Structure formats: C-alpha cells, structure tokens
Amino acid sequence: MNINQEQLTIFKTVIETGSFSAAARQLGKVPSAVSMSIANLEIDLNLTLFQRVGREPIPTPQAIILYEKTEQLLIEINQWKQHAFALSEGLESSLNIVVVSELLHIQWTDYISLIEKQFPELQINVFSAPQEDAQKMLLNQSAQLALMFEREQLESSEQFVELKREALVPVAAIHAPLAALEQVSYEQILQSRQIIVASRDRTLKPELLFSKKYWRTDNNLSACSMIMQGLGWGVLPLEMLNQNPHIKQQLKILNFLDFSPKFEYYVDLVWSRESQLGSAARFLINHIRNSRKNTK
C-alpha cells in the first residue's frame, strides 16, 4: 500500500465538494487526474470509496469513515513536514530549561508559552533546582537555558540577559520568638535556626546563610511551610508573599538591626557559551533582548 498526501487531499476534496469536477477546479487539476487518483486509491485500499451512479459520485460508508480521519492525518503530515524543516533550519530536538526553585513563583510560564506558539512541535522539558544545581546543569549541558538569580562571580562560559529585579526578605512565623522583636540583632540571628534553600550537594555552602544552626531544603515551598510551622526563620521572595495573602498573614518580615532586611537581586536568563543553542533558545533570548530595548 503506497498512499501519499496528494491522494488524501484529493479524496478529502471530492467528499467536501461532492464531485470530481468541482474537486478538480478547487485543486487546479483536470477532472481526469482527480478521477484517476481516486481509482488508484481504491486499488491501493482494496475498497470502493464512491458509487459512480448518476452524474455525481456517492461516498460509500467506508469512505465516510475514512474521511473522518483524513483531515487530522493531513494536519499531522503538515506538522511533521514543518517540524522536519525547522530541524533542518537549526531547531533543537528538545529544549531543557531549568528554573531556580526560589523563582517558581514568578510568571516563568509566559516564556514557555512564547516558545510554544513559535515552535508548537518542539518538546520542552522544564526542571526546577536550587541555584547552585541549576548552574551545574548549564555547565554540564543537561539544560540549555536557566532562569536564575544574578551571581557575584560569573563563570567565564556563561552569558546572560536580565529579566527583572526580585526582592528577598527575612521572615519568621508570627508566633515565633523572633517575630515578637521590634528589631533583631545579628547575635539573635546567629543563634536562631535558619531554614535555607540550598543545593542538594552538601559540600556547597548555601548563599544568604547567617545562622550557626540551619536546616536545608531545595525549594521555597517546603522552606515556607517549615517557617510557617515555627521551625526556623528564612529568606523568601517578597513577590511570593504578595501573591499569597494567606501565607503573608502567617509570616512577619523581620527588621534587622544591623543591616537592611531586604535583599534585591536581578533575575537572569542564563546560557552557556559552550552550548550549541538551537532556534528556540535563540528566539527566547532575542525576544527578551528586544523587550529590554523597547522598555528603555
């Protein structure tokens, strides 16, 4: 059986127009070519698709059943061709994006939607990981793009574009001892257990670590749950609190005596210079760059 896209298109058009001649006009063919294509299709399928009685061909029940599947099949064939063309033009076979777990509350899915609209057939894999682990994924090329906080020292192989500013604030449960204090001294911070979002690699020192005693977790949601339970204080994104009033009501932003209790960082889209980026990754990078130009 050797059925091609042109035969399926002709079959579909004959059904929809009701005649070989009308289908021929719509497709820009001569009626004999349409009639021959249907006859060959019937031979290939070993089915009678049209009863040729009277002036117009009448679809058989078998033809009606096949017609219901033909349109979707033609759509899939076109999508397959478009995807193959995109691959030949440099589209990656899949795109791996890692979102730092402290940033899962931001509208990162907006960026995924942009890529999906431009490359609907692309497989996109999204991971979450603490900052240090996300950086490792870029370096070992298990992810092509990362949404992460700015780093004090940029790896020589990294390149980035800024997305937005993000504020982090120190918080404790409203019933915790630290929350009862108007101002918290550095000595009191040192002696209070801190819940820290950190790498799964225990050999790496967590960022924004102030307390001598601390518990680690790899995402903000579990950190937030432990803080609300009164198991320690921690640093959480201010936007996360503002987006969740029920969480904000259970926490108090601590007022540090010796330094500002508000930490501001840029959120970056980061990639490795050593990775061979495909069309989708480059599309997102250029989109963000152009958006920044338009807002300046």
- Whole-number count of domains: 3
Q: Considering the protein shown, what is the CATH homologous superfamily of the largest domain?
A: Periplasmic binding protein-like II
User: In angstroms, what separates the terminal alpha carbons?
Assistant: 60 Å
| Beta-strand content estimate | 15-25%
Q: CATH first level of the largest domain: which class?
A: Alpha Beta
How are helices and strands ordered from N to C? HHHEEHEHEHEEHEEHEHHEEH
- Cα-atom radius of gyration: 30 Å
CATH topology assignment of the largest domain: D-Maltodextrin-Binding Protein, domain 2
Helix content: 40-55%
Q: What sort of overall outline do the alpha carbons produce when their principal axes are compared?
A: elongated
**Spans of 5+ residues with little confidence (pLDDT < 50)?**
none
- Mean of residue pLDDT values: 88
Major sheet details:
9 strands, mixed
Q: Please tally the helical runs, counting DSSP H or I stretches of 4 or more residues.
A: 11
Name the structural class: alpha/beta
- How would you classify the quaternary structure? single chain
CATH architecture of the largest domain: 3-Layer(aba) Sandwich
The strand count comes to 11
Keywords: DNA-binding, Transcription, Transcription regulation
Family: Belongs to the LysR transcriptional regulatory family.
Organism: Acinetobacter kyonggiensis
Protein name: DNA-binding transcriptional regulator, LysR family
